[in-house]
Amino acid sequence: MTETVLYDYWRSSASYRVRIALNLVGEAYRSVPVDLLAAAHRGPEHLARNPQGLVPVLDIDGERLTQSLAIVEYLAETRAVSGFLPSDPIGRQRVRALSYAVAMDIHPVCNLGVVAHVMAAAEDGEAARRGWMQKFIGDGLAALERMLEHPATGAFCHGDRPTMADICLVPQVYNARRWEVDLSDCPRIVAIDARCAEIDAFARAHPDRVKP
Amino acid sequence: MTETVLYDYWRSSASYRVRIALNLVGEAYRSVPVDLLAAAHRGPEHLARNPQGLVPVLDIDGERLTQSLAIVEYLAETRAVSGFLPSDPIGRQRVRALSYAVAMDIHPVCNLGVVAHVMAAAEDGEAARRGWMQKFIGDGLAALERMLEHPATGAFCHGDRPTMADICLVPQVYNARRWEVDLSDCPRIVAIDARCAEIDAFARAHPDRVKP
Prior knowledge:
- The structure is a homodimer of 212-residue chains.
- Chain A is globular, with a radius of gyration of 17 Å.
- Chain A contains ten helices and four strands; from the N terminus they run βαβαββαααααααα.
- A four-stranded mixed β-sheet of chain A has the order 2-1-3-4, covered by helices on one side.
- Chain A folds into two domains: 5-82 and 204-210, 3-Layer(aba) Sandwich (Glutaredoxin), CATH 3.40.30.10; 89-199, Glutathione S-transferase Yfyf (Class Pi), Chain A, domain 2.
- In chain A, 53% of the residues lie in helices and 8% in strands.
- With 212 residues, chain A is an alpha+beta fold.
- Chains A, B: One of its GO terms (cellular component) is cytoplasm.
């Protein structure tokens, strides 16, 4: 049995997703912090783990895996208890679509490297960052709220147990609050996020709980 | 039997992926253009189809689906011939990771709406757009090239038949060429793209072939 190791950064949304997923399937892991603010992700040691220079990287089952959602899908396939994806193809399609509405359409645009580039081009970098975050997180979550106006939405994004969509949503809501995005028009999102916060697997993965 | 309808834009990478995937599984479809340049995607008719206001939207099997990669996964699950994902969990994890290295880490950052925002903030909008595209597509494909330095890479991104990773790669290479990104350090990517171009399902999906 090989040790499961997560190369992690406490505030990374992608790492946060994988922490939630590992907790939900009850997979014990050791965390190795990669300090993005000190540019450790661009050092030779981390680039040898992942040529993209991104976190998370997960060592599990004797393999080295990258890309948070590909890891969540792997856990869904190999850990039968996960429930990360529903059993019907249309349900799985919907959960993936909701997941990607966050993980493709919001998160990459607000990633550290992208926003650094936006700040560098602006006269007032801090204001540019704040405006950028509020626009793209705000617009993206407003669209997601409308996608959740759907009969398959339950206590969680899809039905009454957490799926991959909730694993994507919670770190994005954490970021929305960090940048003071107005969520008053997103009551479904706020309610689902609150329900997730009550689950130990989500609570233990929160950045404040894993901050070095 | 319901008609399969693709709400499409000829130059959208996400639409291009779904065209390739539909062609590869031999699914006949009718194309309905949504003119992004005329902002048709933000009109009430398209927002009723997809609250995100994005293309593609696919009507298939009596359902309405959004999010290109969730559609590709749906076709992989429901059309046994697809081969879009390998049969082993580690292989599937790798194909998804390669796919997301394009579909999450390059494409959203270079999306029309995001780049319009970058241009609006810049003194010389055209130069800002060009610099932005070259940086993010260039850096992203360079990282992907290193991910392809892997024993599981074959004639295509994973093994010797096209998978979801190739479906993501080809539209991104089209965009790289459009923005004159230097691909001289990406010989694997260039070779795989050339092999895909020889396949009718890819060739028929090319923007130049479907441009209204």
